[in-house]
């Protein structure tokens, strides 16, 4: 047995499977992960399914629990709160992710050590498994996050992740729906945690199993999540951008007034002058808000970091 494999068997491993109407696939997911991780505890959290998801998961040997608040983010919040383990494996219940890749992901987490290993789908997926619209949206959002937060992942929206205990227990879990993958990634980037990706095969859903994703609606929600987190985590940059935008608008409105005043000594468009003045006041108010909130955010980030450091690194007790 390799040292990494021995270390794996000394860890408490929990497989987390959030599910909503996955009766056709959940049993196979449980069986596949039981085969590659016989020592793991497999938890299926049913999110108000109207089919036999819970019954089939229980019959396959999973520990089945229920989360009444609808949305994947709500399910993850409950899972991360309730379940105690050293290593957490997060996977969807649609049987599209490659269970056999999990031991390598865990070994990578422990050998570095890392706080998160993401299963990247972009370069190893079946023909129709990853629709072009979803690929484009994924790359667009990933590029946006890289621009705002620095280095990111190539597959930011992957639902297949292996995470350390200190990552999970320091994760605030504020989102409600599918934007939770974005929040997971940004949490790691914000605290500059050690993370990596491993290319894993990605399969198609079986016939009769339907995706719960809505390309445009969920993409918009993820984009709004990124902007909201940018405002919260980079308030000085966010409000400085607003300051510049408002100040430029005010100057554009004021320049003709100054030219007219220089030529005639009059201000004939008095309402425009009031508007320009008001917008400039808003610009400086925005800048002051950014300076104040940046100080608050810095203190909050320090507390998050201390909470993260209070838990031992992977492989250490």
Protein described:
It is a single chain. The chain is α/β, with parallel strands linked by helices. It has 2 domains: 3-233, Spore Coat Polysaccharide Biosynthesis Protein SpsA, Chain A; 235-309. The protein contains 11 helices and 7 strands. The chain has helices at residues 3-9, 26-36, 53-59, 72-82, 102-111, 132-149, 165-169, 180-190, 215-233, 235-264, 270-309, and strands spanning 13-19, 41-46, 63-66, 87-90, 116-120, 161-164, 195-199. A 7-stranded mixed β-sheet has the order 3-2-1-4-6-5-7, sandwiched between helices. Helix 3 (53-59) links the parallel strand 2 (41-46) and strand 3 (63-66). The longest helix has 40 residues, at 270-309. The relative contact order is 0.12.
How would you sum up this structure in a few lines?
With 317 residues, the protein is an alpha/beta fold. It has helices at residues 3-9, 26-36, 53-59, 72-82, 102-111, 132-149, 165-169, 180-190, 215-233, 235-264, 270-309, and strands spanning 13-19, 41-46, 63-66, 87-90, 116-120, 161-164, 195-199.
End-to-end separation: 21 Å
CATH class of the largest domain: Alpha Beta
Q: How many independent structural domains?
A: 2
| DSSP E strands, number | 7
How would you name the CATH homologous superfamily of the largest domain? Spore Coat Polysaccharide Biosynthesis Protein SpsA, Chain A
Strand content: 5-15%
Largest sheet: 7 strands, mixed
Shape: elongated
């Amino acid at each position: 047995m390799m040292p990494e494999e021995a270390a794996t068997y000394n860890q408490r491993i929990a497989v987390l499977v959030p599910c909503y109407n996955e009766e056709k696939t959940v049993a196979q997911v449980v069986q596949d992960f039981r085969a590659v991780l016989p020592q793991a505890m497999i938890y299926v959290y049913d999110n108000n399914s109207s089919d036999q998801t819970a019954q089939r998961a229980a019959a396959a040997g999973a520990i089945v629990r229920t989360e009444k608040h609808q949305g994947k983010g709500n399910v993850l919040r409950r899972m991360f709160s309730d379940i105690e383990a050293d290593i957490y494996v997060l996977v969807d219940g649609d049987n599209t992710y490659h269970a056999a890749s999990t031991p390598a992901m865990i070994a990578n987490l422990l050998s570095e050590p890392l706080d998160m290993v993401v299963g990247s789908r972009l370069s190893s997926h079946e023909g129709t498994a990853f629709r072009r619209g979803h690929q484009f949206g994924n790359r667009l959002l990933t590029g946006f996050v890289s621009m705002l937060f620095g280095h990111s992942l190539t597959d930011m929206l992957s639902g297949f992740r292996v995470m350390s205990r200190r990552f999970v227990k320091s994760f605030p879990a504020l989102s409600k729906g599918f934007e939770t993958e974005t929040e997971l990634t940004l949490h790691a980037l914000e605290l500059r945690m050690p993370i990596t990706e491993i290319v894993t095969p990605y399969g198609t859903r079986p016939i009769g199993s339907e995706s719960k994703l809505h390309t445009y609606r969920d993409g918009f929600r993820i984009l709004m999540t990124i902007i909201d987190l940018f405002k919260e985590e980079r308030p000085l940059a966010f409000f400085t951008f607003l300051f510049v935008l408002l100040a430029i608008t005010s100057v554009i409105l004021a320049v003709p007034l100054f030219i007219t005043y220089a030529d005639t000594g009059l201000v004939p468009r008095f309402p425009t002058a009031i508007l320009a003045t008001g917008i400039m006041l808003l610009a400086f108010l925005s800048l002051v808000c950014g300076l104040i909130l940046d100080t608050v955010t810095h203190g909050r980030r320090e507390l998050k970091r201390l909470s993260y450091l209070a838990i031992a690194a992977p492989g250490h007790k």
